[in-house]
Amino acid sequence: MAGSNPYIKTPEFEKATRPYEITIIYEGEPKTFVVDPKDIPYERSGLPGSILDICEGHDIPLEHTCGGVLACSTCHVIVREGEDSCNEATDDELDQLEEAPGNTSKSRLGCQCVPNGSSRIVVEIPRWNRNAVKETPHE
Ligand code: FES
């Protein structure tokens, strides 16, 4: 699902201009590949070139209940390396992140975090963040 959130200011971000290496750790397994800016956006969920966009383009499951419009926290990721190459989190993103289980100082929302490609980056999808909707019991 693509779209935008009328209640937030669109975050500023710098698009990657050259290919860069990314490692996504999913289920504890690192998957490393090169992101080529000419392929961005991949699937149009989240900001173009965001971690969510990249995951969708490489068949790596990353929850995104709100469709990538900064209205949930299910796309929570932890940037283990290369955080300086990413856009700064906005106050809206930090507010949403407070709802994410296991929030850390390196946490970002995958739909809002856009690497600019100036360095390699390592991103972990927390185990508790997977299938959040399916695994949450109904009350
Ligand atoms: S998918 Fe909902 S905030 Fe990122």
Report a brief summary of the structure.
The chain has 139 residues and is α+β, with helices and mostly antiparallel strands.
What is the topological layout?
Elements lengths: L19 E7 L2 E7 L15 H7 L18 E6 L9 H7 L9 E3 L11 E4 L7 H4 L4
Characterize the structure shown.
The two termini are 26 Å apart. This protein is 13% helix and 19% strand. The model has no long low-confidence stretch (mean pLDDT 90). The protein is α+β, with helices and mostly antiparallel strands. A hairpin with a 2-residue loop joins strand 1 and strand 2. It has a five-stranded mixed sheet. The longest helix has 7 residues. The structure holds FE2/S2 (inorganic) cluster (FES). The site of FE2/S2 (inorganic) cluster has 13 residues, from loops.
Sum up the structure in keywords.
139 residues, alpha+beta, five-stranded mixed β-sheet, 3 helices, 5 strands, binds FE2/S2 (inorganic) cluster
Small-molecule binders here are: FE2/S2 (inorganic) cluster
- The rough form would be described as globular
Spatial extent as radius of gyration: 14 Å
Largest beta-sheet details: 5 strands, mixed
Order of SSEs, N→C? EEHEHEEH
Summed up, the helix count is 3
Helix percentage: 10-25%
Q: Which sequence of strands runs across the widest sheet?
A: 2-1-5-3-4
Give the beta-strand count: 5
Report the average pLDDT across residues.
90
State the end-to-end CA separation: 26 Å
Strand fraction equals 15-25%
Q: Stretches where pLDDT falls below 50 for ≥5 residues?
A: none
